[in-house]
Amino acid sequence: METLDEVNSGLSAKAKEHLKGAAPWMKFVGVFFIVIGALDMLAVLGMFAMGMPFHVSMLIGITLIGLIIYCGLLVLRTGNAYGNYIHSNSSDHLEKAFFAQKQYWMILGILIILFLLLLIVSYGYVSSLADSGAFN
Q1: DSSP track, 10-28
Q2: pLDDT at 2
Q3: Concatenated DSSP letters for 72-126?
Q4: φ and ψ at 75, to 5 degrees?
Q5: Is 101 left (phi over 0), alpha (psi -120 to 50) or beta?
Q6: Cα 57 from Cα 108, distance rounded (Å)
Q7: What is the pTM of this model?
Q8: What confidence tens digit (pLDDT) does each residue in 114-130 have?
Q9: Contact (CB, 8 A) for 73 and 32
Q10: What percent of the chain has pLDDT over 90?
Q11: How many CB atoms lie within 10 A of CB 23?
């Protein structure tokens, strides 16, 4: 495990203070995402238990819930890694934090692209309905 000293860390004391201040909030947000995702999953399972038939939209919902939980885990890991870095000055912890952040932002970027595609398709659909006189 490689440790960084004050001279070679590349992080100023102010940057470390910001990490120290952000880490608890990241842990809080991560746990919040995980709890909300778990409650949502319980709600979906409750619908199954009450006899609601399976539908494709439920599969999409379960997938999104899984992504919420996974993003929560990534934010929690980042907060833990930043906190560990502050205490140990180990570059391993920074690398873990940066990797988790890379995954988090990649997932959000993909979701934004999917959302934009869905938005374009839905605008096209509504436009075709309008052209056909469906709203008259």
Answers
A1: ---HHHHHHHHHHHHHHHH
A2: 59
A3: HHHHHHHHHHHHHHHHH-BHHHHHHHHHHHHHHHHHHHHHHHHHHHHHHHHHHHH
A4: -65, -40
A5: alpha
A6: 20
A7: 0.79
A8: 999 989 999 888 888 88
A9: no
A10: 60
A11: 20
